[in-house]
Amino acid sequence: MAPGVKAGVKRRRADDAPDSPEDFSNVYGSHFADQDLPCDDIPDESMPPEVAYRMIKDELSLDNNPKLNLASFVSTYMEKEAEDLMLEAMSKNFIDFEEYPQTAEIHHRCANMIANLFHAPQDTAIGTSTVGSSEAIMLAVLAMKRRWKQQRQRHGKPIDNPNIIMSSAVQVCWEKAARYFEIEEKYVNCTRTRFTIDPKEAVELCDENTIGIVAILGTTYTGAYEDVKAISDLLVKKKSHVPIHVDAASGGFVAPFVLPHLEWDFRVERVVSINVSGHKYGLVYPGVGWVVWRSPEYLPKDLIFNINYLGAEQSSFTLNFSKGASQVIGQYYQLIRLGKAGYRHIMCNLTKTADYLAGALRELGFVIMSEGQSQGLPLVAFRFPSKDEGETEEKDFDEFALAHYLRSRGWVIPAYTMAPETGQMKMMRIVVREDFSRSRCELLIKDIKLCRQHLEQDSNQFIKRLQEHVRRHTSASGKIRDPMGAAKAAFKNERHSLQDHPSCNAAKYSGGGVFFGPAVVLPRFPTQLQSSFAVHV
Ligand SMILES: Cc1ncc(COP(=O)(O)O)c(C=O)c1O
């Protein structure tokens, strides 16, 4: 029998001899190529592996090219050796410390290295890996809430109204954490000119029910670093013991190499915990994150579970139990392969590229909103100038239209709205990642120039047609029943809490993850795109 020909499977084509087996090595000649792929029910019959592989690969070719997705902070490049190690570890369940003690050892090494990078006290710091910063933040919030609760109970005080203070530039996972764990969100508003927390306002908002203040090292919107030290100094001055958690999802692997003297980590007195995403500037494929506490004092014992299901006594403080071991191994590879020098070279290059890109966009007439000069993440946040900033002509296009035009060249660059009190300020953001070298940056600049020219040439009427196209395109592709569909229908009028928050102006982020993100996030893009066009047509 010829290789690839499976015995026992009958040909179903009329022109084939009745009893000869079907040749599945000829994937596009098999009956599977003549049928739609199963969508709702698990098929009754099996499918040969080469056919399943080819069919799914072909379908996935409709996805964007991750390297052109400049919306996301998440790593899209790792060396072959790292990929090999990760592939080899794919069948290991990370949590099974007894079976995979060396993986556990590697995990502890990574946690130690990251804690040391953040200047955690050597003898007391504790930390763990997570699936990403969101899980890390959930754990940190739980720890802050439990510690606050225990302190209140010790003094016989009520425990029913905890709150957390953060800037309106927080990533959505903070809102999730607050809602999931029933904590009141207290926002310090951004303004048209300040996109970070105001330390004074944050400290003034503290009361006896405050479980902590969040400071972001690299906001999702503009990449700016919030002033952790100023918050801490004000708390110390006020003799307040409200703890600070630093969300260093992106900045945790940038600032230590680019701005080593910036005090934002455990060098700062009131910082008790820090999260970082290994899969962002930690340079690992998704999903790995880390959370570190200054000492066990800040991680109440009853949140840690000691278990022995897997043959050995081990402790667990995670939201999920099982997870793959590959990402932790990938993280270790990057830490020892690159070393501090390697990370420094990469982060400095990215910073230079971001500054170069910002300069080029400024020359094209855009307003640059990100910090630049190493003072924030290596990203460029920008927008068209408004009338009071020298724009002379009335445009019938906006940042959302530019994002859509760039999409036709393959680039995924999100546009989003900063919200009501900033006068519906729209902006775009380009995340400069490891594989975005200077030569690709030059190509992007040319494409932005070109798309802008095209936009200027195209008519108002065309924008209307484009709006219609986007509406139809997004609904036509949704042929598969969305497993979150019922929830979406039930909560159709539900808005992101920041959008409705009366004192909040960082409302409508549609950035990283929109195109590739989870089902609940996905619907925001078309809605926003349409409403943005509605302003103009
Ligand atoms: C500041 C900040 N915090 C938290 C997160 C969530 O991180 P993750 O995607 O690793 O869960 C992000 C993601 O972009 C972020 O930018």
UniProtKB/TrEMBL annotation:
Entry's Gene Ontology molecular function annotations: glutamate decarboxylase activity; pyridoxal phosphate binding
Q: Which Pfam families match?
A: Pyridoxal_deC
| GO CC annotations on file | cytosol
Reported EC number(s) for this entry are: 4.1.1.15
Q: Which residues carry this modification: N6-(pyridoxal phosphate)lysine?
A: 280
For this UniProt record, give its keywords in alphabetical order, as a comma-separated list.
Decarboxylase, Lyase, Pyridoxal phosphate
What's an example GO BP annotation here?
L-glutamate catabolic process
Which top-rank group of organisms is this from? Eukaryota
Cofactor(s) needed for function:
pyridoxal 5'-phosphate
UniProt region (Disordered), positions on chain: 1-38
Q: Which reaction does it catalyse?
A: L-glutamate + H(+) = 4-aminobutanoate + CO2
Q: Which family does it belong to?
A: Belongs to the group II decarboxylase family.
Q: What is the name of this protein?
A: Glutamate decarboxylase
Q: Which organism is it from?
A: Metarhizium album (strain ARSEF 1941)
